[in-house]
Amino acid sequence: MRKTWKISVSNLLIAIIFIYVGAWFLLDNLGFLNESLKNALILFIPYIIAIFGIGLLIRPFIKNHGLASDWLFGLFFFPYGSLLIADRFGALDFTWSDAWKLWPMIIIYVGSVILFHRKN
Predict the structure, then answer these.
(1) Is the pLDDT of residue 10 over 60?
(2) How far apart are CA 44 and CA 114, in angstroms?
(3) Does 65 map to a domain?
(4) Contact 80, 102 (CB under 8 A)
(5) How far apart are CA 102 and CA 2, in angstroms?
(6) How many domains are contained in the chain?
(7) What is the mean pLDDT of the chain?
(8) Radius of gyration for the alpha carbons in the chain, expressed in angstroms and rounded
(9) Are 78 and 57 in contact (CB under 8 A)?
């Protein structure tokens, strides 16, 4: 019998972060990363964050997979990545350290849970 491989979203995120950071340090220590390549790699991080957030947002609605916590993290990661992308294009001023400005998302999440709570 074939076993299926399952990993939680939080474990997947942690694994991706460790692999990315480890590969970054390894390539940098070996001298393979010059400034232009570093800038190119940093450029893609906001897109990855936004796509990850979209995946977390739609996951609970597809065949009842995922948890409410996935939706909460998606509600954070999608706007965070999108705002970082908008900053790259000069549409607004939003930096990596401005994540704390998204705290009202917690209020939106609580309201959404109350609104969409299903009783079993």
Answers:
(1) yes
(2) 35
(3) yes
(4) yes
(5) 43
(6) 1
(7) 79
(8) 17
(9) yes
pLDDT digits (tens, 9 = 90+) for 97-110: 888 888 888 788 78
User: Which residues have C-beta within 8 Å of that of residue 31, sequence separation ≥ 6?
Assistant: none
Does 26 have pLDDT greater than 70? yes
**Which residues make Cβ contacts (< 8 Å) with residue 17, sequence separation at least 6?**
none
Is position 3 within any domain? Answer: no
For 35, the token pair is 């400034």
Task: Pick the closest to residue 81 from 44, 119, 50, 120 (CA basis).
Answer: 50
Domain-embedded: residue 2: no
64 Cα distance to chain centroid: 20
Confirm if 54 and 76 have CB atoms less than 8 A apart: no
Residue with tokens 């309201």: 111
Among 107, 115, 57, smallest CA distance to 82 is for 57
pTM: 0.65
In single-letter form, the type of residue at position 52 comes to: F
Give one DSSP letter per residue of 23-84, joined into a string. Answer: HHHHHHHTT---HHHHHHHHHHHHHHHHHHHHHHHHGGGSTT-S-HHHHHHHHHHHHHHHHH
